[in-house]
Structure formats: structure tokens, C-alpha cells
Design goal:
Blueprint (H helix, E strand, L loop, with lengths): L2 H11 L4 E4 L6 H12 L4 E4 L3 H15 L3 E5 L3 H4 L2 H9 L4 E7 L15 H4 L6 E4 L6 H13 L5 E7 H5 L25 H13 L3 E5 L1 H5 L3 H11 L3 E3 L14 E4 L6 H9 L2 E5 L5 H4 L10 E6 L13 E4 L2 H11 L10 H13 L13 H11 L4 E4 L3 H9 L7 E2 L10 H11 L5 E6 L10 H7 L4 E6 L4 H10 L16 H8 L2 E5 L2 H13 L4 E6 L34 E2 L6 E2 L14
Parallel strand pairs: 1-2, 1-3, 3-4, 4-6, 5-6, 7-8, 7-10, 8-9, 10-11, 11-12, 13-14, 13-15, 15-16, 16-18, 17-18
Antiparallel strand pairs: 19-20
Helix pairs in contact: 1-2, 1-7, 3-5, 3-18, 9-14, 11-14, 12-15, 16-17, 16-22
């Protein structure tokens, strides 16, 4: 057998059913064997229109299924086109195996046609990478790649295959999944019993605890454990953008997303809590705001599988290193028979007051359609759909107003990659052909990978793309309005904007234009019921801003865009010891000089 066959057989043995990719010269031997593998019924290849689209599709495939996503790209520009998607998966800890073609072994280092050192280029954004020098190593390398990508803190890996390796024949010996362990590899340790007991000690005495849940809970499948712990100790639960779906957002204990565009009640809760139980999170700057103002009164329990994250930005009183699900299982087992015993009831009532006075607001139905109205309509019409998003204001509105189940919220969080949403929806729809999959996008971000309409059309993937079209790079415009004295530099998108309805039709996708509130829900329902792919362009208010918002350099309690409720201020009047100024606000830092109050 040759190297291409070995690769296809190894992927089949690792349960790969779909590959997203785009061919080219250096990877043609692999595509030739892929053609044969498809004819045998081993797997299916999805031809994307740009390699970046392939990485995002494989990424979302992994997020939705919990399996390892796989994508192909050729050498040179094909490989470099993969970089943004690899970085996206790396930042969000998504398991992915990326396979690139490379020039023949003898040509490596000669600046041959379409040669790039993709191994070196991607070193900072992969868990591990290989250049295959001998086809006899392929089966072992694939086994190691899947093991590394999917264990511990998940992430992308890369296998670079020179063209002549794909055609060289040899005596092929298969390697079964899990039987090849790379030197130095070790699984994360089990959570230490003493750490579990110390964490329980803090939970049992806390009066204002908060469960702060991130993407690690999704990766480990710890949804049930998060709910059990919350209900046992009556813990309010806030989630990060990556953690959406880890806890039922309609549950009475849910306080929604926290951070820069989180709910007011989540941000007030994290500011006033006395115990922060951080589960599968990394204390991202978009969550914490001004770090020294994040949970300033709280002791911290930090549970994470990656020891490098524990104490990286906030040193916890109790570090718990290990798989999130195993750690929560241990907490639940050790606390059998325990309960809140009323300790948190006053705290929950306080949070309920914030929920009543600082709700997420949909503007009144006047004038042009508000973007929040569209998201709420989608939530009502398609409550159980898989939702993918692009990046920007629409992403934050979707995060605020959609209520998602486990693995049904798929968004680029850490890297903030515009153009992620539609190819991501392709990946989810490929994994679940009978599921309802909706991409929420903006008119600027959708153009980043608009060519993937061709993929939707070719495979008749019934993805529904809903564009909140305000004619701007919306989040950029909001920042320019708020922090750059309304100098709107290069952020308006009306010049050169395509007719999206006609553009979709040109690809063979149904296009829908919505301009009137009176018909919005009806048109949305009709489009969502369409059996094939649909592109829905909704004209929304041009200058709507996304609130609440924590300005850069502020603490989470210092949100803008909130109504004033002095009786609910989370702190009484205090005098600054540095400058003497008095403040009657929710701040823990002096608004005059910035000193801690």
C-alpha cells in the first residue's frame, strides 16, 4: 500500500466520517486515495470553497459532536489559508486534526513551488505537529494525533505530508486507536482528594457563592454535574461565552453570561460574591474587565484540566487540577447529604432584585426593526436549533437572548474570528443532517466567507443564515462612537454592499429580504421552514448599540447602558482614601482617581 492509503485507512479506523477540504498539487496523492476511500463507503469529503471555511467547518463539527474534526489543505497558500481556523480552534480548545500536503521531501527547504514551512508557522497555535518523513510512520502518527487532540485540554494538531510520501509504497501495518502513545505523553492527574475537601469547605460556609462556568464544562460533558452541584448548594450560575449551554439558562439559578456584554445581574453577582467557583474557565479579559476589580471580595476555587491556567491571572485559594467532570463528580460524591440549608437564600433574593430591575432590554417596536427583536423571534421560532454566529454586535445579542442547550451554541470566542459562522453551520449540519441549524451573522462578517454559499448549495445543506444588516462593522462603529469621538474610520459597509437576496440566488440558495416589522416573524417562519439552505437579510436599525457594556479598563460593576436604580446600588456611599472623593455607585474603585475603595 502507499502513504495515501495508509492515511485514509488510519482515519477510517479512528471513526472519521467527514473531512472538510480543498485539493491542490501537493496533496493530490492523498485526494486520489480519498476518492477510492469514498467509493468504498469509508467516509465523505465536503468540498469547501476556501480552506479557512474547511477549518471552521471541522471546528464546529467537533464542538457540536464532541468528536475530533478533520480538514485537508494543500501546501503553500492552501496551508496558510488554514492558519486562522487553526488559531480559532486553539484559542477555544477544540479538538481538530489538520492534514496538509507538502512539496516532496527532497524539495523541502529549496523554496520549491508552493512550499511553506507550515510546521513552523503553526507551532504556537497547535498542541503538536508532525512532518511525515517515512510513510511507515503514518498510521502511528495519526493515532498519536487523535490521542493528543482529544485528551487533556483539547486542541488542534497538524500533520504535514510531503507529496512523495503519499505515493511511496510499503508494507502497511495498521495501528489501532489508543495503541500509539507518544514519548512523554501523560493524561492529566485525577483531582486530589485534599483539594476536593478544601473546596467543599469553602462552599459549605459561603453566603454569597457564584458558580462561574466556561467551555471546559462543555468539553468534558459536565452539564449534569454542574446542575446537580448548583441545585444541591443553591448556587447561582453564570457562564462565559464559551460556556453557554453548560447550564439551562431558563433555570431559576441561571444569571446568564457575564463579562463585557454580560447581563447586569451576572456582573453585579460576580462583583459582590464571597466565593467564586470557577469551573473550566481561564479568566479571560473579556470576562474579568479590570482584573483587580473582578470578584474583589471573593475567595476563589479554580477547577481546570490545564494546570497552566490555574493561577495564571487570578491566584485561587483552592486550585483543583483535573478533568472538570471528574472533579465535579468528586465534589458531589463527597457532599452527598449536604445542602444549602438556607445559607444562600438572601443572596438569591438580592440577585432576583437585580434581574427585575436590570433585565436585558428589547427596544420598543418603533421605527426600524431592532436587531434584538430578530434574535428573540429566532429564539421563539427555533428554540432547539443549533446556533452558530459570526463575531460582533450580533454575536453578543445572540449570546444575551438565545437559550441554548449543550453543544448547541457554537461561536468563535477567544480569537473573535469574523467569517466563522456560516462555515461553522456547514460543519454542524454535516454532522446532524436532520437538525435545525441557524447561523446568526452581521453584514460585514458574512462577507468574510460568503463563498461558502457554494458549499451549502452543492450539498443542499439546509442551513439558515440570518444576517442582522445595519450597514456597519457594528461593534467597531460602537467603539468608535463611544471611545473615538465618533470618528467612523473605515467601518461603514454600505458602499459596495451586495444585494444579498440576489447573491444567494446566484449561488442557488433561496434569498429572503426582510424590511418590515409587521411581516418579520411570518417571513422568518417561512424561511426557516424552507427545506434547503436559505439566506435571510434583515434590515435593522443602523445605530443600535449592544448594552450592557463594560468599558475597557473598568471593573464589571462599571457598566454603561443601564437604567439608574439607586436603591439597588451594590455598594453604599464611600469616601476614597486617596483623593477624598465620595461616590454613590456600584463601583469598588474611585471614579475620580481609580484607587480601590
Amino acid at each position: 500500500m502507499n502513504g495515501g492509503y495508509a492515511l485514509m485507512d488510519a482515519l477510517r479506523r479512528h471513526g472519521v466520517e467527514h473531512i472538510f477540504g480543498y485539493p491542490g498539487g501537493a496533496i493530490l496523492p492523498i485526494y486520489d486515495e480519498l476518492h477510492k476511500a469514498e467509493s468504498r463507503g469509508w467516509l465523505k469529503h465536503i468540498l469547501v470553497r476556501h480552506e479557512q471555511g474547511g477549518t471552521h467547518a471541522a471546528d464546529a463539527y467537533a464542538r457540536a459532536t464532541g468528536k475530533v474534526g478533520v480538514c485537508f489543505g494543500t501546501s503553500g497558500p492552501g496551508a496558510t489559508n488554514l492558519v486562522t481556523g487553526i488559531a480559532t480552534a486553539h484559542m477555544d480548545s477544540v479538538p481538530m486534526v489538520v492534514i496538509t500536503g507538502q512539496v516532496p521531501r527532497a524539495a523541502i527547504g529549496t523554496d520549491a513551488f508552493q512550499e511553506t514551512d507550515i510546521f513552523g508557522i503553526t507551532l504556537p497555535i497547535v498542541k503538536h505537529s508532525w512532518v511525515v518523513r517515512d510513510p511507515r510512520d503514518i498510521a502511528r502518527i495519526v493515532a498519536e494525533a487523535f490521542l493528543i487532540a482529544s485528551t487533556g485540554r483539547p486542541g488542534p494538531v497538524l500533520i504535514d505530508v510531503p507529496k512523495d510520501v503519499g505515493v511511496e509504497e510499503f508494507d502497511y501495518v495498521p495501528v489501532e486507536p489508543g495503541t500509539a502513545v507518544p514519548p512523554g505523553f501523560r493524561l492529566p492527574p485525577a483531582p486530589r482528594a485534599e483539594a476536593i475537601e478544601a473546596a467543599l469547605g469553602l462552599i459549605r460556609q459561603a453566603r454569597r457563592p457564584l458558580l462561574y462556568v466556561g467551555g471546559g464544562a462543555i468539553s468534558s460533558g459536565a452539564h449534569a454535574q454542574v446542575r446537580q452541584l448548583a441545585e444541591r448548594f443553591r448556587l447561582p450560575v453564570t457562564t462565559t461565552l464559551m460556556g453557554k449551554g453548560a447550564f439551562d439558562e431558563k433555570h431559576p439559578l441561571a444569571v446568564g453570561m457575564l463579562g463585557m456584554h454580560g447581563t447586569a445581574y451576572a456582573n453585579f453577582s460576580v462583583t459582590e460574591c464571597d466565593l467564586l467557583i470557577a469551573v473550566g474557565v481561564r479568566f479571560d479579559d473579556r470576562v474579568t474587565g479590570r482584573l483587580d476589580g473582578f470578584a474583589p471580595r471573593a475567595q476563589v476555587i479554580h477547577i481546570d484540566i490545564d494546570a497552566a491556567e490555574v493561577g495564571k491571572t487570578r491566584v485561587p485559594e483552592v486550585p483543583v487540577v483535573g478533568d472538570v467532570r471528574l472533579a465535579l463528580d468528586a465534589l458531589l460524591q463527597a457532599s452527598a447529604g449536604d445542602g444549602a440549608e438556607g445559607r444562600t437564600e438572601a443572596w438569591l433574593q438580592r440577585i432576583d432584585g437585580w434581574k427585575q430591575h436590570y433585565p436585558l432590554v428589547v427596544p420598543p417596536p418603533e421605527g426600524e426593526i431592532a436587531p434584538q427583536e430578530v434574535v428573540v423571534a429566532l429564539r421563539d421560532l427555533a428554540p432547539d436549533a443549533y446556533y452558530t454566529t459570526d463575531v460582533g454586535q450580533h454575536q453578543m445579542w445572540a449570546a444575551q437572548f438565545l437559550h441554548n442547550g449543550p453543544r448547541r451554541w457554537i461561536s468563535s470566542a477567544g480569537l473573535g474570528t469574523m467569517g466563522f459562522g456560516m462555515p461553522a453551520a456547514m460543519g454542524v449540519q454535516t454532522a446532524f443532517p436532520d437538525a435545525q441549524v441557524i447561523c446568526v451573522a452581521g453584514d460585514a462578517s458574512i462577507l468574510m466567507n460568503i463563498q461558502e454559499l457554494g458549499t451549502l448549495a452543492q450539498y443542499n445543506l439546509p442551513v439558515k443564515v440570518v444576517v442582522l444588516n445595519n450597514g456597519w462593522q457594528g461593534m467597531v462603529r460602537q467603539w468608535q462612537e463611544s471611545f473615538y469621538e465618533e470618528r467612523y474610520s473605515a467601518s461603514e459597509m454600505t458602499g459596495g454592499m451586495p444585494n444579498f437576496e440576489a447573491l444567494a440566488a446566484a449561488f442557488g440558495v433561496r434569498g429572503v429580504l426582510i424590511t418590515e416589522r409587521s411581516r418579520m416573524r411570518e417571513q422568518l417562519a417561512e424561511a426557516l421552514a424552507h427545506p434547503g439552505p436559505a439566506f435571510i437579510d434583515v434590515k435593522v436599525r443602523r445605530n443600535e448599540n449592544c448594552y450592557p457594556m463594560v468599558p475597557p479598563g473598568a471593573s464589571n460593576a462599571q457598566m454603561v447602558g443601564l437604567p439608574s436604580h439607586p436603591e439597588l446600588a451594590i455598594a453604599t456611599t464611600r469616601q476614597c482614601g486617596s483623593c477624598g472623593a465620595s461616590t454613590e455607585s456600584a463601583y469598588h474603585f474611585c471614579p475620580s482617581c481609580g484607587a480601590k475603595l
